[in-house]
Amino acid sequence: MKDFLSKLGIKHENSGTSTGQEFLKDVTSEKITSYTPSDGSEIATVYETTKSEYEEVVQKSQEAFKEWRMMPAPQRGEIVRQIGEELRKYKEPLGKLVSYEMGKVYQEGLGEVQEMIDICDFAVGQSRMLYGKTMHSERPQHRMYEQWHPLGPVGVISAFNFPVAVYSWNAMIAAICGDTIIWKGSEKTPLCGVAVQNIIGNVLKANDVPEGVFSLITGGREVGEWMTTDERIPLISATGSIRMGKQVAQTVGARLGKTILELGGNNAIIISKDADLEMAVRAVVFGAVGTAGQRCTSTRRLIIHESVFDELKDRLVSIYQSIKIGDPLDEDTLVGPLIDQDAVQAMQNALKQIKEEGGKVITGGEVLENMEGHYVKPAICEVKNHYEIVQEETFAPILYLIKYSSLKEAMEYHNGVKQGLSSAMFTLNMREAETFLSHRGSDCGIANINIGTSGAEIGGAFGGEKETGGGRESGSDAWKAYMRRQTNTINWGDELPLAQGIEFDV
Ligand code: NAD
């Protein structure tokens, strides 16, 4: 057993329900086995949540909500502050577990935990800033204002590729808003959920906060569907594939519930003839091969001006040939494994389709059969933007090179996909940069100049347009999605005037 696992309270068999404890473990429960993609070996198992356990979790969450919503928001912030402190203590073992269970390199595992700490800090401040507006009433001696109330138990469904950070973006903001949280993480990374739940559990116990404020359930699509169909859960925040998002939107929409959808991307960088190529190359490589191309914000398409196309291509190919691929916990590794064999197969299928549609694989794409685990060489391909395969998000390190000659053409390629998450342009030309950020520029939720598509900070609202789902999480005023708005009018006079000057004498 690796020592970081025991530090996080991970055992051979783990309860996957509520605050990481055993109290609900149902003996008939199925187990989910977690394997490390680094060598394919089994790490540990987690009991899958049964329907009866799910019922208990929702009831505990509803009960906890009654207490939690009445705690002043800054006091809820204090609990979140302590969670942030606890995460600081566990940053190293949790970063290692993220790396070991998901396969991203250790530095990125640490980065995920840091993101959790950052959102805790942000949420603490936000807990004193749940501002509502006041309005001047048209009626004399009347006051109008709006206030924000918590929603209730919020369901968070998350993806394998950010097994802890995405949860915390939702959970810490929802918590300071006064909601309780029921989290179903990915069935591919169940141990990350158990570890985070154990860490949060320490804080809840020390403060006598009901454990139903933060609950964990484990399982796959079916368990997710218990949540999406459940009228007791007014908001579902779901992160994952577009296919999943369409199902969740329909199911939750059918009961007129609320959703925050954070779905797939097909992110591009435009490299202008006026780009600083040195900076562009570094940003492209991090964006395209970081997390082995398994970020929602991974750079998938490079739209390159014809005058710098060959130079950029040659530089990228030479860097790709020396990228160190291997054990994600090894400090020298830049690219770890893909999550599983299905992901390796999906990448191989995509490379085949690229060739069938007329594209060229210039470098990489091979499966590293000699290594245990799901390792591939990141690939660079020359393609046309309209190819069907280029229009899709293949969740693997494939970088598409597309040539352009005018900015108008570049923008058409850029926006000519169904997804709209992250985007970037490298240029030192102010007119081009401002065009890219203007109403007729990028149609994505995130648009950057002279930095890449991935690696967002928590301070901004994170999310995307079109098939990316339209949700926003994390910073800015994303907190509003976790609350309900109420408009209040108070008459402090002794008459009852009606709005719009309507006369109604009785
Ligand atoms: P996935 O869609 O296979 O699964 C995501 C989660 O949804 C899992 O917990 C799964 O059990 C659950 N699920 C699946 N079908 C469901 C249903 N019908 N009802 C309820 N729950 C259901 O995605 P994945 O392979 O884990 O993650 C990769 C995808 O996630 C990529 O498309 C990536 O771009 C996207 N992603 C998006 C963001 C973002 O913020 N936009 C962030 C991370 C990942």
UniProtKB/TrEMBL annotation:
Its EC number is 1.2.1.3. Residues 28-487 form the Aldehyde dehydrogenase domain. Gene3D superfamilies: Aldehyde Dehydrogenase, Chain A, domain 1, Aldehyde Dehydrogenase, Chain A, domain 2. SUPFAM superfamilies: ALDH-like. Keywords: NAD, Oxidoreductase. PROSITE patterns: ALDEHYDE_DEHYDR_GLU (PS00687). It is an enzyme of class 1 (oxidoreductase). The keyword Methyltransferase does not apply. InterPro entries: Ald_DH/histidinol_DH, Ald_DH_C, Ald_DH_CS_GLU, Ald_DH_N, Aldehyde_DH_dom, ALDH7A1-like. The active site is at residue 262. The keyword NAD applies. Homotetramer. Belongs to the aldehyde dehydrogenase family. This is aldehyde dehydrogenase (NAD(+)). It comes from Rhodohalobacter sulfatireducens.
